[in-house]
Amino acid sequence: MLARTASVRARPDGVEAVRHSGGMQIIEVSDLGVRSAVLRLTRRDTPLTFEIYPMVHIGEPAFYAAVTERLRRCDLVVAEGVGGTRMPDGSRRRTRGTVAASALTSSYRLPARFARAGLVLQNIPLATLGVPVSYPDMTDEQFSAGWREVPPWQRMLVTAGAPVAGLYQLAFGSRRALARELETTDEHWHDELMNIDSMDELMALLGEKRDRLLIAELDDIHRRRGHEPVTVAVVYGAAHVAPVVYGMRALHGYGLRGAGWLTVFDL
Fold first, then answer.
1. Range of 123's domain?
2. Structural domain total, the chain
3. Fewer CB within 10 Å: C terminus or N terminus of the chain?
């Protein structure tokens, strides 16, 4: 079975291991457990490497420990995290976040808080990695502005429904039930993003503002540091990975040159 060290794989590593008949596997769910692919993007003629870590909000402690260990060996970390205030130097001053953001995340915070089935909430100590961390995600102000554009009835439904979903998982959930919701591939992005060749065209296609902010940050890093032999880790939710992979391929020719697996949790 999959090892609890989160470093032993059930199948060989490599690019082919994350490809399947429908495209690219990002989060894999099998009878053995849930695994997250670690994707390495490189480009001819420039030494910079992007190392992408697709994240899920709940997993075994060993998974987050394995990701943390690898991040310490990188030169820069680009991390997910809605909320806070962007400072003049580009850094992010973290805050407690908006009420809406807190309600939206409660569906997974409640089960993790009670440590049901030996799982924990994502807990990577970004502030103490010893590596610079960039947060291109939405600030409190940006999130609140977008939230106000959502029709009131939908806001009420989501705000009330997320905690209820969390309580349901707490009462009746299991590892296997959680796993059914996690599988992620590039199925919806492959055809749409293959022929994009400009930033404007890419941004027009991406409806998710957080994807646009992330890709703009990676584009800027490539332009500023593409000539340096550095490794830039991207630590974002699995749903954001396919737009990054195809977006950076379309904009700058980055391709998937290496891949591995980390165990999120066993079944």
1. 15-266
2. 1
3. N
